[in-house]
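Contributing: when you submit paired examples, paste them exactly as shown. First protein:
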Amino acid sequence: MQPSRTPPVPPIHLQSLALLVIDMQRDFCSPGGYADNAGLDVGSLAQPIAQIERLLAAARHLGVMVVHTREGHKPDLSDCPPEKLARSVRGGAPIGSQGPLGRLLIRGEYGHDFVDALQPLPGEWVIDKPGYGAFYSTALESGLRARGIRQLVLCGVTTEVCVHSTLREAVDRGYACSVVADATAASEAALQEPALAMVGVEGGIFGRVCSTEDILAQWHGQDMGQAQGSTP
């Protein structure tokens, strides 16, 4: 991605910011889960875990709102569209079929839950979503509005599907968005850079792409500024 296409860093206010950790589940990031059964490289999908740990630690320290999303379906598959189910069959990992981590992408199964390193803390919001985007058929938007959230930082998997779907939904709803490049991963390595490049075109049509270091520096800088501003 060309630096000239990178939009300027918008001013931030930590109280109006949320970190969205998208679908860091065993079904996508662990051997034996949905992605593994579909023939995807779960080692690559697990790579963002360390960077997301850093983002979570900073968010928790600074009081930034944290939202974890999980993709999955009811045990009777009543919320799984027939075409999505058919596509999963064609892909070799039928949703609801039995795997080493339980039924694939079914709520309540071991594989549906988050990887150990990224388990939510008590009080952090978990959004169970039946679609790729986190706003579809969930209470995410109303919850963010109630908290006065206007800016979102997105990380997780997969960059080209659930991260992008959520990003586009968020932009259409008026949120300022940042995608953390090294805290995301695509289902295929060749898709990562094109998916990120789409974000910054036309002056940042879908927001900006940044690194974990960028985000941490910005957050801590804002926190220092607020602390100094409150000093008598």
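Second protein:
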Amino acid sequence: MVLGATPEAEYATGSVALAPGDMLLMYTDGLVTRPGDDVGRGLSRLVRSLREDASDDLQASITRIMRDLGAPNPRDDTCLIGIRVPEAVRSAG
């Protein structure tokens, strides 16, 4: 069920541990789907964009993903939210 689609919807909860340097992306289907195109192709484009991204800058990564996937999608809503866990800071001592 799409989040927020109906007030009666129930959702399971879960958790995942993120390590330093990890990035978590949450997006609507408008990022990866296009009329007449298979969702698998859109997901493959997203994975390819992520693999080519060497930036530690979250905003630069999101900008690149949006560009690579042709977002915003004029036929569907497109939302991409991301967080990146900072790398551990090493002490100088």
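If you have annotations for the second protein, write them as plain sentences, like these:
The longest strand covers residues 23-27.
DSSP finds two helices and two strands in the chain.
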